[in-house]
């Protein structure tokens, strides 16, 4: 896993993260808007990504360079419901992906994807999640 780069598409995005979680990203520097291959789903209060789908399916988000990301991962894992010792029982799983930045360059990142898709999940065809009530 590439240390330092994190792709965010949901409640880890700036302005959407709860205060205690937002502090985990203090000092992070945005590399800008990015896309990864996959599909995005509405899980209610938050979205879930799957790195699967058809050609052209993309998830919109942002890439951050996070100082000391490796040291912050245990707290981020707890927030995302990921237990590295028991990924089969986790809500989300941390994995690697390749993000494409707006300028066309590509960068390896960590990303959290939903471990098991709930039956009621609804696909977000645009690939961009907006919280309820957002315009």
Short description:
The chain has 135 residues and is mainly beta.
Let me know the number of strands.
Answer: 8
Topology-level CATH name: Hypothetical upf0131 protein ytfp
Would you tell me the overall average pLDDT?
92
Q: Give the N-to-C terminal Cα separation.
A: 35 Å
What is the percent of helical residues?
Answer: 10-25%
Number of helices: 2
The CATH H-level superfamily is Gamma-glutamyl cyclotransferase-like
What is the total domain count?
1
Radius of gyration: 14 Å
Portion in strands: 35-45%
The CATH architecture designation is Roll
CATH C-level name: Alpha Beta
Strand order of the largest sheet: 1-5-2-6-7
Which oligomeric state applies? single chain
Biggest sheet overview = 5 strands, antiparallel
| Protein structure class | mainly beta
From the spread of the alpha carbons, the general shape counts as globular
Taking pLDDT < 50 over at least 5 consecutive residues as the criterion, the unreliable ranges are none
Which H/E pattern describes the elements? Answer: EHEEEEHEEE
């Amino acid at each position: 896993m590439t240390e330092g780069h994190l792709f965010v598409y949901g409640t880890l995005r700036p302005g959407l993260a709860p205060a205690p979680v937002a502090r985990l990203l203090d000092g992070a520097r945005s590399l800008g808007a990015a896309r990864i291959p996959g599909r995005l789903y509405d899980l209610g209060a938050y979205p879930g990504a799957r790195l699967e789908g058809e050609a052209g399916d993309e998830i919109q988000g942002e890439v951050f360079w996070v100082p000391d990301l490796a040291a912050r991962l245990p707290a981020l894992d707890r927030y995302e419901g990921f237990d590295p010792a028991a990924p089969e029982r986790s809500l989300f799983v941390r994995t690697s992906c390749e993000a494409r930045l707006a300028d066309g360059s590509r960068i390896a990142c960590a990303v959290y994807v939903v471990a098991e898709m709930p039956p009621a999940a609804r696909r977000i065809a645009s690939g961009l999640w907006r919280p309820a009530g957002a315009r």
